[in-house]
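#structure-requests
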Amino acid sequence: MIRSLISQHRRKILFSLLILAVLFYSLGTGFPFFYRLLFTLLLLVVIGYGWAWLNLRGLDVRLMRLGRRGQVGDYLEGQIQLVNRSRMPKSWLEVVEDTDLPEPGGRTVALVRGQVRSFRIATYLSRRGIYRTGRLRVTARDPFGLFRIDRTFLDGQPYTVLPQTVPLPDLDRRFANLPSDSVFSRRTQAITPESSTVRDYADGDSVRRIHWPYTARMNRLMVKEFDIGVSAQAWAVLDMERRSHVGAAPDNTEELAVTVAASLVQHWDETAVPAGLAANAANLWMLKPDRRPAQLGMLMETLAGVHADGALPLERFILDLRPHLSGFNTLMVITPSRRPEWTYSLVGLRRQGINVAVCYIDPSSFVADDSGAAPGTTGQVTADYLAQHGIPVYLVRRGEDINHALSHPLAGRTERAGDGSTATRSPAEPAIV
């Protein structure tokens, strides 16, 4: 800490020591030379500070940028324009965006009187989140390198970096071809946009139900029968309980779980499946599935700001979610939790006729397992127990291709026997380790 401060202000320290030395000799000897040298050094200090201070006066700074959100892997681009309104030329100006984004972009420029300079900046978006952008910091220096004065321009604005997504063309058919790809019809007495059949008019039918073109064709009153279109919906249930996640950011189970959830939401949107999101973070999130065009943006922005800071256990959160579910819902639970309680909650949902699947983020692939278990052992035993109740488990490890991991469940993989034949792995005892 001290060494870095000395290295950063080395020139100031040396210049201050020089002034003290000249002052000592001036007072000790009384020679006019030392007094002239002392006054010269002090004058340089005044000129340097004044130079840096005046460099920041008479500046007009603008930032032009399109959009308020990007995605991990993209660049945050913008165009900065500087105008020198004063008569004094500007030199040694460093323009940097004052943001909490990693590695913000900037540039060093010089301006003569009345000159306009424009240049582009680009900041690589390496991590998801909600950041402050749009404020610019201009730093001026003197010719001697003694002073560094900052001045901020413009007001900061929030910028959302959406999580990374992975294409899922090989998503397991048992989970990709959801019943929500089609619409189920139920007869209803209410007037809905779904008209199924036409029948003869009966006493008590509303005039609003009369099908006038068909009435004119049949020469008798005909009324419409309406259905309610019931479409199954997909949920991504993201376990954001604090004690469930391991690893150091940005390479941890939290980021991998969010990437999986974002990839599933993106895939469902591309296949016209109504998608919802639920997460037990510090602020509980429960965004119900919807067909609105803005639904994908809402889900992605939520995933950009969610973190593993929740205290509510996953099994309790699933119980709170149960009243919002029906037999037309499909859940993909994404969790790295090693506790067995949440598996029992999923079995209860499965008995209600709700389609449930689990994406298990293997925590042993991020940290060493003190218990000595091999990587993926916990996930395999969990999969064996859930497989007994018809719940598939997809195991995702650190550095593994997510598309490949979600293409087939962990339980039920075929293993090659010693004689070269293949056999299906049988479920183990219903125990969780």
